[in-house]
């Protein structure tokens, strides 16, 4: 017989009050403000924006405060918030070629127009804990220098390679409608645009692990970082009532152009192939991993055997979303009393049958 | 919805976009100060300020087919001045007050007779934005790598 039960309301309310107190921590320690999180935990905020798939630094910082710094919980809050808002439309595609670069490096060419610009990077730091940061104090002001004449023009490394036909061109804009996985469920096979949307909002750890697996031989692509650039781009949107592009403001993005080993055929000369990564905020690890996985997922298109997880689009796309993954994993802790009761009944009956049968076998043997 | 009582030529559209970009980058306080300086009449809402989403799109490889990167929060406002002029604003973020201030400035700017005064009032915000960009460019420039050719040790 199934008996519906109810209960735990008071316990849940009290658990939420206890959560609020735990979130605040020791009241003798000053409370964090949203602006402090936005400014001083900026890369964490960027990660929540990327995986929450919503660019809004203040909102991501607030979500992190509410979530006690739990990234996936903050992503959950941001995703839930976005479902309450109307969508005005889609922007014009951002022009990363016109990015105001805060950082731009290439691992393939030393000298290139616009130069190698390090920007604020952890690269080349010694990774020694800086105990001076435990004490409050003023930071030494950043150095300044007069920008050189070519500082404003950073052509893409892939454009330089393309001039000589050494790299495949990007797939042309044919004006076809762009699939949106937030509007329709993904149908397999998914095109590259949909795959990039899924990877851009995918869990950084999962995408990183997959990208790493391609380097270790599970779908090898022989990658070079053609270029990484971080900086601000303008976002334009054409409202129906105005009919011309309105500048909405600027967002910070990280772009990675991965240059991979060649492909050619009897009719086409060998050319480098490409993997692409683009992500909200400053996250080179995510953009690089995304570009590796983007290239791996093109295996079939490029006539390579599909044998590894990173090349299997259903495996990658169906499992890269941190919110979907956590939802299904974490639902296991919710009450399954009735399901489990049925399993208990079954295992008891099977055990009873097992012992009855073994008794009769023993009797027969005697 | 009528866009404006004043028909804009293409070069005027570009100038209007430049003012819109300036307002999008400026702070709410900067826009408030500009409107105070203009002694602007009270505007009524054509549409109450509203926060929503715009799907930001990128291009595969930076220059190819578009794809959906993720959404941005956007707040829009549409107002009408007592003389019938209408103004619009769409900004990143969720600041309804700021969007309404920018829409009012947009309406005032569209009147050729008031345009110069609006641009003057926004001058402090424009200079602030320009200084911030210049400062960022100088700090970035200091991290540009100068490669040195090392002596090869042949002599």
From TrEMBL, chain A:
Pfam family, one: PhnI
InterPro entries referenced in this protein's UniProt entry, alphabetically: PhnI
Top-level taxon of origin: Bacteria
GO terms classed as biological process: organic phosphonate metabolic process
The protein, known as: Alpha-D-ribose 1-methylphosphonate 5-triphosphate synthase subunit PhnI
TrEMBL record, chain B:
Organism of provenance: Methylobacterium pseudosasicola
InterPro entries: Phosphonate_metab_PhnG (IPR009609)
GO BP of this protein: organic phosphonate metabolic process; organic phosphonate transport
Pfam families, A to Z: PhnG
Designated name of the protein: Alpha-D-ribose 1-methylphosphonate 5-triphosphate synthase subunit PhnG
